[in-house]
Design goal:
Number of strands: 12
Strand order of the largest sheet: 2-1-3-4-5-11
CATH class of the largest domain: Alpha Beta
Strand content: 15-25%
Oligomer: single chain
CATH topology of the largest domain: Rossmann fold
CATH superfamily of the largest domain: Response regulator
Largest sheet: 6 strands, parallel
Radius of gyration: 24 Å
């Protein structure tokens, strides 16, 4: 009888412990702790995504935790961040995968642990996610190609400086750009296999090397147009053009926005910028997750829009919001 009593007491203790653990997990779910994991932490693009995520958290009454790798090529660091949030038992994860395959296992682990995942910005070769909230990047690339072809009157030589292998969002922009130019047989793409990398410095070096091979005997460029698919490559190329004395002398289209790129557009050194809406992306990423956690149906794919900005429309009120997002309200900067 005494052994039975001891057994029953131990069983009750274990049941109580399991019940407490389950209650703690349920409480965390009720509190709505949403982890938002960007590709990187330093660019204006990701700061704007952060601001949008915080606004959604504030409006919807959930806690948003923002954490990501410093560099956008640090796959291991981003995987570790995802795994850490799985261990913490957050309510949901909003993830911008910096590689379309390297994060598949981590996302699968999250979902198997009962933590849904919303993908933002860049695609993942997986069906485990709840929703994909992003720009139509292929269309953004096509818009750039069509504009560049128009600027050079449908004929001439152009180059594409790519971003980083494995990045789904920029790969789609690059493909959209190239596909659009195939429709203009008098436009020749003379270089499309060079990568700028994830920092403005590496992009500057790659741009300088690329342009040095395209110099004519009189030091002018032997090309008529250039396209770069993200903020770091766009600024790196702008620096190389400025230092070579070519800025404004060759038609140039970039992607995304920063203070330096806006100045380049205003000064006539950039002809157009293709812009996403990173604030809306961050906002809808968190909002979609909260709706899913609340049992509401959500779309598998949500398009956050793409806009071509030129000197003609850069001072329009809606365009100015895209070029110069107010980060001070949410980030204090």
């Amino acid at each position: 009888m005494r052994r039975l009593a001891i057994f029953l007491v131990c069983l009750a203790a274990v049941s109580s412990l399991l019940s407490c653990k389950k209650s703690e997990q349920e409480e965390r779910r009720k509190k709505g702790i949403i982890a938002v994991i960007p590709k990187g932490s330093t660019s204006e693009f990701w700061k704007t995504v952060h601001a949008g995520a915080l606004k959604a958290g504030d409006e919807l009454g959930v806690q948003v935790i923002w954490k990501g790798p410093i560099k956008e090529d640090d796959r291991e660091a981003q995987i570790k961040v995802v795994e850490d949030f799985i261990s913490r038992g957050v309510s949901g994860i909003v993830l911008a995968p910096l590689d379309n395959t390297a994060l598949r296992a981590s996302v699968h682990d999250a979902v198997n642990s009962g933590i849904p995942v919303v993908i933002i910005d860049s695609g993942l070769k997986s069906d485990d996610y709840t929703s994909f909230v992003a720009t139509d990047n292929y269309q953004g690339g096509r818009i750039a190609g069509e504009r560049l072809a128009n600027l050079i009157n449908g004929q001439g030589k152009v180059v594409l400086l790519r971003y980083e292998e494995g990045s789904a969002s920029t790969s789609e922009r690059e493909q959209g750009f190239l596909d659009s130019l195939k429709e203009n047989q008098a436009v020749e793409v003379v270089s499309s296999n060079q990568y700028g990398g994830v920092t403005t410095e590496s992009a500057y070096q790659a741009s300088e090397n690329l342009l040095s091979r395209l110099k004519a005997p009189d030091n002018s460029l032997s090309i008529q147009g250039i396209f770069c698919p993200n903020e770091s490559t766009s600024f790196g190329m702008l620096r190389a053009l400025q230092e070579g004395g070519w800025a404004g002398k060759v038609r140039y289209i970039g992607f995304d926005s920063s203070a330096n790129l806006v100045k380049g557009l205003r000064d006539g050194q950039i002809d157009a910028l293709v812009l996403q809406n990173p604030f809306v992306m961050g906002y809808l990423g968190v909002k979609t997750m909260v709706e899913h956690l609340s049992g509401k149906p959500v779309a598998k794919r949500i398009d956050t829009g793409v806009t071509l900005v030129t000197r003609d429309n850069m001072n329009n009120p809606e365009t100015k919001k895209l070029l110069n997002p107010d980060l001070k309200v949410w980030l204090g900067e």
